């Protein structure tokens, strides 16, 4: 829908109707809901399953739900999951092999039809993350056909951020808090004396068609102005920042920095950061067989560069130390990702900070590396 951004204002009834309209169109609606002490992504059937009245308290290695007085549905930061869970599943069968009575093997590719998802509540940082994974998994010469099929069928409802968390730094990565193009619908939540409502904008033909089916009213100046102000204010309230330098050059110039030894002394190499990250994409193949040996399956599952066996040669692992594995992850995410895919691999969601069991903070490490580089330059040392 080039040049057209149809807008309207919907209430909480319109949000409930949105879920039902999307489901009636054959889509599996995934959105935030409260479960097991966290705001998680799960299939939802109605607006009453959204986390109205819940916020989160975030810090490095710390996540807690907290009640809110305003009843907002989306005034919370990114949870433990990302949309990667659905577009690039943790585990996916590739093929099966069966031995017949005559001893011949038949290999059958798994051709399970892709799900048609509607994602409700996609944060701007996650909208950017989906765009990053699009380039990684379907934008080059080696396309992941299953990812592309799921992605092409997905309907994205972005929700702009009006209350960033203590570990958010999307502004440093140019990934929020306002939604960039790529959504079908965008919502900005407003709760004030004028009521609880959402400023809605269509970003595609399909988005406009869905918006037309919802109970709505024309956009009024007060709602639009308040929505824009709340998003602008959120940009000034980020809990974290990256140093204002070229991160790609910073990673290149500090490969031998002493700071890597410091972080290695704390890192457990558990891989939580890669599992929580919305852009990490590495996988491995896993073959399984039944007890008879007549049936076998190959599965693809997520893998982490923190795994000792992730990069292995006949002589042993390529990165035997935790130092080298953390450095590989950070320098790839912030630096060499540009060389491969033309952008940073980090969107500033802060998940890696929150879900690190020892509270390692990638922004703190970047600032420390920058300070060490500056100190070396002041002493006349050449970049490492």
What tags apply to this protein structure?
4-stranded antiparallel sheet; 2 domains; alpha+beta; 15 strands; 384 residues; single chain
Q: Could you give a short description of this structure?
A:
The protein is globular.
Explain what this protein looks like in three dimensions.
With 384 residues, the protein is of the alpha+beta class. It has 2 domains: 7-235, no CATH class; 247-378, no CATH class. Helix content is 32%, strand content 24%. It has helices at 12-24, 84-87, 124-138, 145-153, 205-212, 221-235, 247-253, 259-264, 272-276, 322-341, 351-354, 362-378; strands at 7-11, 28-35, 38-43, 54-59, 62-67, 91-99, 105-109, 117-122, 155-159, 185-192, 195-202, 283-289, 295-302, 312-313, 316-317. The protein is globular.
Helix content: 25-40%
Largest sheet: 7 strands, mixed
Task: Report low-confidence residues grouped into runs of 5 or more.
Answer: none
Q: Rough shape? A: globular
How would you name the oligomeric state of the polypeptide chains in this document? single chain
**Order of secondary-structure elements:** EHEEEEHEEEHHEEEHHHHHEEEEHHH
Cα radius of gyration in angstroms: 23 Å
Topology:
Layout (H helix, E strand, L loop, with lengths): L6 E5 H13 L3 E8 L2 E6 L10 E6 L2 E6 L16 H4 L3 E9 L5 E5 L7 E6 L1 H15 L6 H9 L1 E5 L25 E8 L2 E8 L2 H8 L8 H15 L11 H7 L5 H6 L7 H5 L6 E7 L5 E8 L9 E2 L2 E2 L4 H20 L9 H4 L7 H17 L6
Parallel strand pairs: 2-8, 8-9, 9-10
Antiparallel strand pairs: 1-11, 2-3, 4-5, 6-7, 6-13, 10-11, 12-13, 14-15
């Amino acid at each position: 829908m080039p040049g057209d951004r149809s807008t309207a204002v919907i209430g909480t009834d319109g949000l409930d109707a949105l879920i039902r309209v999307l489901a009636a169109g054959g889509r599996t609606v995934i959105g935030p809901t409260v479960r097991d002490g966290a705001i998680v992504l799960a299939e939802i059937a109605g607006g009453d399953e959204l986390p109205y009245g819940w916020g989160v308290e975030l810090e490095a290695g710390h996540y807690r739900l907290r009640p809110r007085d305003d009843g907002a549905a989306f005034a919370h930061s990114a949870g433990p999951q990302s949309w990667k869970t659905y577009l690039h599943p943790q585990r996916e069968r590739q093929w099966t092999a069966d031995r017949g009575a005559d001893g011949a093997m038949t290999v059958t590719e798994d051709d399970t039809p892709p799900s048609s998802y509607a994602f409700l509540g996609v944060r701007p940082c996650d909208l950017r993350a989906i765009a990053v994974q699009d380039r990684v998994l379907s934008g080059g010469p080696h396309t992941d056909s299953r990812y592309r099929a799921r992605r092409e069928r997905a309907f994205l409802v972005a929700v702009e951020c009006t209350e960033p968390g203590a570990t958010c730094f999307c502004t440093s990565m140019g990934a929020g808090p306002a939604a960039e193009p790529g959504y079908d619908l965008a919502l900005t939540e407003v709760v004030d004396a004028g009521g609880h409502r959402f400023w809605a904008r269509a970003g595609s033909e399909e988005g406009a068609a869905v918006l037309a089916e919802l109970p709505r009213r024309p956009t009024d100046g007060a709602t639009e102005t308040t929505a824009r102000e709340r998003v602008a204010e959120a940009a000034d309230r980020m809990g974290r920042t990256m140093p204002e330098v070229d991160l790609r050059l910073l990673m290149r110039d500090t490969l031998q920095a002493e700071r890597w030894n410091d972080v290695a002394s704390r890192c457990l190499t558990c891989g939580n950061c890669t599992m929580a990250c919305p852009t990490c994409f590495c996988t491995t193949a896993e073959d399984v067989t039944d007890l008879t040996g007549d049936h076998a399956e190959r599965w693809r599952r997520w893998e982490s560069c923190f795994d000792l066996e992730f990069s292995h040669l006949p002589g042993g692992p390529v990165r035997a130390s935790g130092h080298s594995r953390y450095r590989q992850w950070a320098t790839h995410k912030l630096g060499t990702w540009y060389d491969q895919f033309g952008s940073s691999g980090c969107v500033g969601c802060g998940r890696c900070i929150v879900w690190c069991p020892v509270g390692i903070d990638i922004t703190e490490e970047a600032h420390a590396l920058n300070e060490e580089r500056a100190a070396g330059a002041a002493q006349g040392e050449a970049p490492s």
